[in-house]
Specification:
Largest sheet: 6 strands, parallel
Helix content: 40-55%
CATH topology of the largest domain: Rossmann fold
Number of helices: 13
Structural class: alpha/beta
Number of domains: 3
Strand content: 15-25%
CATH architecture of the largest domain: 3-Layer(aba) Sandwich
Strand order of the largest sheet: 2-1-3-4-5-11
CATH class of the largest domain: Alpha Beta
Shape: elongated
Radius of gyration: 24 Å
């Protein structure tokens, strides 16, 4: 039977101290009380704990902090990803710092933070993939970088991306199999990887079935509830019998519009969302969704950063060294879709 490796968390629990205290004793990064140091050292000996290569590398000139930049800290997707990152980083005595940037000047705020504060690695997703100053910093960054759902030419950052293309393609095919031909899509106007893959997956699924893509059935804007409402209303006015909403906020906007118009889901309109949540599960009827394994995505991002730190490859990164992981999506079928009928 394979023995379970003793972790820094086990040592902290055995010694009755915090993980940060154990990390400080191991790395000699800050002073702790003689009593706490004695407890930690006794627990290390009792459990047979051996700091791994990564932990030893953090004894000098390291902050033991990984930064995760998000534009909306209340977003369920980001909080779930952060959970996965935290769980993986904690095993190595590293800390996760969540940075809330807001939607305005997101790239400027990221640049300001990385220039003023020290991190050992960063994870970020961008709204503007053409921000010149940030791109220049990313090209020469001395620390490991993981991009979430972005791919920047000339940047040697590792990438974790969700399979939007096949996820949205599966959602479109599901509606086509039910008999829908006027399928509306609500997504972002930004020219970013998820938007491009979403539209491509939707259009290719329509093409494979012999149904032409109608530009009037695609509505692009921001990710706000308000845009979800107005875009859904316009699609319904244009004869859509089904709508795929590209985010939770857009889906909530679609649901608001459906209620305002007094339409019955799924009898008069079928709905599919992107991202599973308590909202999509508890609404009546339950909403069919394209689901991402959010906690798993967080673990993938942490693993890529840890690999960079462990191998100390970040100083000589080239595009050939860039690691990329594509995380599968899954269509969760619930009761929000049915064969179309003629609305009166």
């Amino acid at each position: 039977m394979k023995e379970t490796k003793v972790t820094i968390k086990d040592v902290a629990k055995h010694a009755g101290v915090g993980i940060g205290t154990v990390s400080s004793v191991i790395n000699r990064s800050r002073s702790v009380s003689p009593q706490a140091q004695r407890k930690v050292e006794e627990s290390i000996r009792a459990l047979g704990y051996t700091p791994d290569e990564l932990a030893r590398s953090f004894r000098t000139q390291r902050t033991q902090t990984i930064a995760f930049f998000v534009n909306d800290i209340s977003n369920h997707s980001f909080s779930s990803m952060a959970k996965g990152m935290y769980e993986e980083l904690e095993k190595h005595g590293l800390h996760l710092m969540l940075h809330h940037t807001g939607n305005k000047r997101m790239e400027d705020k990221i640049l300001e933070a990385v220039q003023q504060k020290r991190f050992d690695g960063i994870v970020l997703t961008l709204q503007d993939e053409r921000h010149p100053q940030l791109l220049e910093w990313l090209k020469s960054s001395p620390i490991p970088i993981v991009l979430l759902d972005r791919e920047l030419p000339g940047i040697a950052a590792d990438v974790v991306r969700s399979d939007y293309y096949n996820g949205i393609g599966a959602a479109t095919e599901h509606l086509l199999a039910l008999g829908h031909r006027r399928i509306g899509l609500v997504t972002t106007a930004s020219d970013i990887l998820p938007a491009k893959d979403t539209i491509r997956g939707y259009q290719d699924a329509l093409a494979r079935s012999g149904v032409g893509s109608d530009a009037d059935m695609i509505r692009r804007g921001d990710f706000s509830l308000e845009f979800g409402m107005s875009a859904s209303a316009a699609l319904i006015e244009s004869g859509a019998t089904a709508i795929i909403a590209g985010s939770n906020q857009l889906l909530v906007g679609s649901v608001e519009t459906v209620r305002d118009l007094g339409l019955d889901v799924p009898r008069q309109l079928s709905l599919i969302g992107f991202e599973d949540s308590d909202v999509t599960r508890l609404l009546h009827p339950g909403i069919t969704v394209v689901k991402r394994p959010l906690v798993e995505i967080g673990r993938h991002m942490a693993e890529l950063l840890l690999a960079r730190l462990r191998n100390d490859r970040n100083k000589t990164r080239t595009r050939a060294e860039r690691a990329e992981r594509t995380v599968p999506t899954e269509l969760i079928v619930r009761a929000s879709c049915a064969s179309p009928i003629h609305r009166t």
